[in-house]
Here is the input.
Amino acid sequence: MKEIMPVNGIFEMPALPFEASVLKGVISAETLSFHHGKHLKAYVDNMNKMLPGSGLEGFSLVEVVKRAEGGMFNNAGQVLNHTMYFEQFAAKCDNNKPEGKLLSLIERDFGSFDAFKTEFVQKGVGLFGSGWVWLSLNADGKLVITQEPNAENPVRKGLKPLLTFDVWEHAYYLDYQNRRADHLAALWDIIDWRVIEERL
Ligand code: MN
Here is the structure.
């Protein structure tokens, strides 16, 4: 995971790494304009307002998330979660799947890529309320899927986070309304597996 540091005492708003229209059919430009431009922007602004005097000045974003509590944690956690979420997407492509070492680990720990996808979506659908489903690497080098409520992130459990689906309703309600399962199943088409493999 690349280290994100504050610049002149504040964390910068991460730019979308693609044109807002290229995910259409899975995530609309309208959803992105709210999700990135409004929700993430508010988390970044709130975190920056709370940073002075918090004792967390000068730490990287991951270190802030590991140490913060209360409102500071809620906002910093959501900045880290959304930064990793938006980074992992690319234009829709056919036969989108991991390769190499990452595919080998998935097949070793889940049996097959399809079995992994099924379990990941089930855990996303089964998460009650707002939160995130994550694929991470644990300290023993094994892949694990965790459900993280609200602003939680696997770094707080000592895991290395690789891939995430946002199951907050703001991530899908404009495009899918209550159909969370349909939204999560569609996300596989836009995962840039090179980004996920770089996080290993
Ligand atoms: Mn979100």
In short: Residues 29-50 form the longest helix (22 residues). The chain has a mean pLDDT of 96.
